[in-house]
Amino acid sequence: MCQLLGMNCNTPTDVTFSFAGFAQRGGRTDQHADGWGIAFFEGDEDDKGLRHFVDHLPACDSPVADLIRRYPIKSRNVIAHIRKATQGHVALENCHPFVRELWGRYWVFAHNGDLQDFHPRLHGNFRPVGNTDSERAFCWLMQELAKSHAGVPSVAELTLTLRELAREISRHGTFNFMLSNGLALWAHASTTLFYVERRHPFAHARLSDEDLSINFAEHTQPSDRVAVVVTAPLTTNESWTPFKPGELKVFVGGACVV
């Protein structure tokens, strides 16, 4: 199965510490060596731009991943993915996260799991480029959101709709996913996801996949809030909260709000 990483913050924050450990799972500390990707929403809620990087090489050896580890891009919402292929060959078009436009905003999606016999009818606005079950699921989600709402609904309304859509897709198999439009981060667990909220007073954290630690108190302000969601805990000395199977959580401003 693939691995997921998401970050949601109340102020632009870099993900270099978490990504440094996460990338090692792409072929070094784990077997997820079939490509990787990461997307950053930058600026505040009115800034709709997106930085999007994908590579078909293992994350632990990718020069692009090395750039991300060294380049502190600051963002309020980040989604990253390292791939262990179950459907679709190893190619750039099959690397997550995937990006689509809806209601004049970019939407970013990454999936961990295996969906069987999932071939929904898709109209022309949302069509997969690659041949993964994940991208088909994303296209169907976007299509059904567009049908359910005339314009950008509130986070609460979106959450209600996504909960129903996730339940429908989950009938076909494992559907762990992360989704963001730059305003919030949604995370759904069919099987395994964990999250941690970092806030004042900030403490030390040590990565489990690399010999690296950080004192967050030296790099933050008392008002900062950061939520990190991941397939398996990234650090050895933080208290990670597990999702319940079938649970959809929403993170806004660095905190879990649902």
Alpha-carbon Rg, integer: 17 Å
Q: Mean pLDDT score, rounded?
A: 88
The percent of residues in helical segments reads 10-25%
* Number of beta strands: 15
Global geometry: globular
SSE series: EHEEHEEEHHEEEEEEEEE
Strand order of the largest sheet: 3-2-4-1-12-9-13
CATH architecture: 4-Layer Sandwich
| Domain tally | 1
Tally of contiguous helical segments: 4
What distance separates the N and C termini?
26 Å
Per CATH, the class reads Alpha Beta
Determine the CATH superfamily. Answer: Aminohydrolase, N-terminal nucleophile (Ntn) domain
Largest sheet: 7 strands, antiparallel
Low-confidence stretches: none
**Structural class based on helices, strands and sheet pairing:** alpha+beta
Q: Report strand %.
A: 25-35%
The CATH topology is given as Glutamine Phosphoribosylpyrophosphate, subunit 1, domain 1
In short:
The protein is of the alpha+beta class. The chain is 19% helix and 33% strand.
Give an overview of the whole structure.
By secondary structure, the chain is of the alpha+beta class. The chain has a single domain (3-252), classed as Glutamine Phosphoribosylpyrophosphate, subunit 1, domain 1. The chain is 19% helix and 33% strand. The protein has four helices and 15 strands. A seven-stranded antiparallel sheet has the order 3-2-4-1-12-9-13, with helices on one face. It has a six-stranded antiparallel sheet with strand order 5-6-7-8-14-15, with helices on one face. The longest helix is centred in the middle third of the chain and has 16 residues, at 133-148. It is globular. The model has no long low-confidence stretch (mean pLDDT 88).
